[in-house]
Amino acid sequence: QVQLVESGGGLVQAGGSLRLSCAASGRTFSRAAMGWFRQAPGKEREFVASISWRGTTTYYQDSVKGRFTISREYAKNQVYLQMNSLKPEDTAVYYCTAGPVVGGTTPTSWDSWGQGTQVTVSS
Known about the structure:
The chain has strands spanning about 5, 10-15, 20-25, 35-40, 45-50, 60, 70-75, 80-85, 90-100, 110-115, 115-120. The chain is globular and about 40 Å long. The protein is built from no helices and eleven strands. The strands form two sheets. Strands 2, 4, 5, 6, 9, 10 and 11 form a seven-stranded mixed β-sheet that branches. Strands 1-3-8-7 form a four-stranded antiparallel β-sheet, with no helix packed on it. The chain starts with a strand and ends with a strand.
């Protein structure tokens, strides 16, 4: 199974920005879609964004459109989430994921998961 490691989380003021990174290591796969989910305390894990293995197709949750941008460097097995205009409602643990199909918006559509990185947005 592919190992995924997130980084870049932290504490930021409302309106600020953070850039999350996810690195794949160990045995990898050649055609994997990548994505980000997040989970706040007491809430279900929710879809944030995803990108196809070639980087030509992206999907976003409505609440982050225009604020977040997902991108990847396929040759480096890296995926990024640029988060701008952050709001307190964005506070959550953010998880990197990988799987065979880019369009899935439920956790069961994805195969591999990182350990998560905490994002806290203060008002």
